[in-house]
Design goal:
Layout (H helix, E strand, L loop, with lengths): L3 E6 L3 H12 L4 E7 L2 H6 L7 E5 H6 L4 H8 L4 E6 L4 H9 L2 E6 L3 H13 L7 H23 L1
Parallel strand pairs: 1-2, 1-3, 3-4, 4-5
C-alpha cells in the first residue's frame, strides 16, 4: 500500500509542529508540505495530497474561496478541518464546502492519525454531536426542497 500523503496548513505554529510529530511517527503517512497562510495553502495543492489538514481560522480568512479553490486545484484531496474554539456553524459551513471532517483541538492529539487514515479510506470524521446537527441540516434542506417543488 502506498503512503497517505498529507499537507498541514495551520497558522498556529505550535499545533502545526505537534501535527508534524504525530504524523511523522505514524507508519504509512507522509507529510509532503506545510503552510502557514492561505496563499501557501493554495500553493501546496501542486502536491496533490490525499489529505489536507486545514486550520479552520485560515479557511475562514477567505471563507468563500479557500476550500473550493484548493478542491479545484486538487479535486481528489480530502480535507479535515482543525478547530480551536470554532462555532458549530463554522464547522458546518466548512463541511458544506467539501471538508470530510474536523478535529477539535482538544482531541486532535488523540485522534489525528485515526482521522487521517479514516478519511483517506473514504470515511468522514466528525463528532457524534455533529452527526446529529448534520442530519438536522439535511432534514431542513430536504423539507425546503419539497416545499419548493410544490410551489
Amino acid at each position: 500500500m502506498s503512503s497517505i500523503t498529507v499537507v498541514i496548513a495551520d497558522s498556529d505554529t505550535r499545533r502545526l509542529g505537534v501535527c508534524m510529530r504525530l504524523l511523522e511517527g505514524a507508519s504509512g503517512i507522509t507529510v509532503v508540505a506545510t503552510a502557514g497562510t492561505v496563499r501557501e495553502t493554495i500553493g501546496t495543492a501542486m502536491h496533490r495530497p490525499h489529505i489536507l489538514l486545514l486550520d479552520l481560522k485560515m479557511a475562514r480568512a477567505n471563507e468563500a474561496a479557500t476550500l473550493p479553490l484548493f478542491r479545484t486545484k486538487s479535486p481528489r484531496t480530502q480535507i479535515i478541518l482543525l478547530t480551536g474554539q470554532s462555532s458549530d456553524a463554522h464547522v458546518l459551513a466548512g463541511i458544506s464546502q467539501g471538508a470530510r471532517g474536523y478535529l477539535d483541538a482538544k482531541l486532535f492529539r488523540r485522534f489525528l492519525v485515526k482521522a487521517v487514515r479514516a478519511v483517506a479510506a473514504g470515511e468522514s470524521w466528525v463528532s457524534r454531536a455533529m452527526v446529529g446537527k448534520l442530519i438536522d441540516r439535511l432534514a431542513r434542506l430536504m423539507a425546503l426542497n419539497v416545499r419548493t417543488r410544490r410551489t
